[in-house]
Amino acid sequence: MTKNFEGKVALITGGSRGIGKGVALRFAEEGANVAVIDINEEALQETQKDFSDQGLELWVKKADVTNSAEVENAVQDIVSKYGRLDILVNNAGIIRDNLLFKMTDDDWLQVMDVHLKGSFNTARAAQKQMVKQNYGRIINISSSSALGNRGQANYAAAKAGLQGFTKTLAIELGKFGITTNSVAPGFIETEMTKATAERVGVPFDQFVNERVKNIPVAKSGKPEDIANAVAFFADERSSFVNGQVMYVAGGPLN
Fold first, then answer.
1. N or C end of the chain: smaller count of CB under 10 Å?
2. Which of 118, 110, 111, 92 lies closest to 40, judged by CA?
3. What is the pLDDT of residues 195-216, one digit of tens each?
């Protein structure tokens, strides 16, 4: 694989599983120094071992993206180790799905905190270093649910908010050589979608097959599909692509 990110340093939040792990793997395979923060220490260690087994290095640290002090410390540790921070992928996320009349205050607040406050904390910490370097790439992971999805009033609002956050950072940080873009996945096979299938009481294979019926390319997405889009935005050659939202969903969305 081409080493497009040789010498670059990338931080992926929530990178121990699913899309985040796929993105981290892509950057590592392309020569980047990769750091992952997550709240799941066991998953972090497993992921680090997976990378090691493939001959790839991965720096990991347990940190809660909703805690600004933990995020600041993690970013400082990364810069101390590698001397710079070039790429931030705000991927950490949770779901607390329910119809509006059943949704609790905690269901709403937890989703907002992880997706929005978490992305705010990490972007604010990372841009300090990126401004010094006069270079950076910030990629926020949104979702096709930003367009609205039954049972996801909290998640849809948070993911739509991330798109507004993306466009605002693009305006504010562009003059410092920092681009900010967003990838909005459609249906991707991950632990999160498996949990959704379990919640609604449907076997995962059946759940996937039903979703695929409405996807024009007639297949489900995989984490590497999102990693491809993230890699495009993160590429040094994408410096004139800023403030964009790319839907990676196997077809057009209304």
1. C
2. 92
3. 888 888 999 999 999 999 999 9
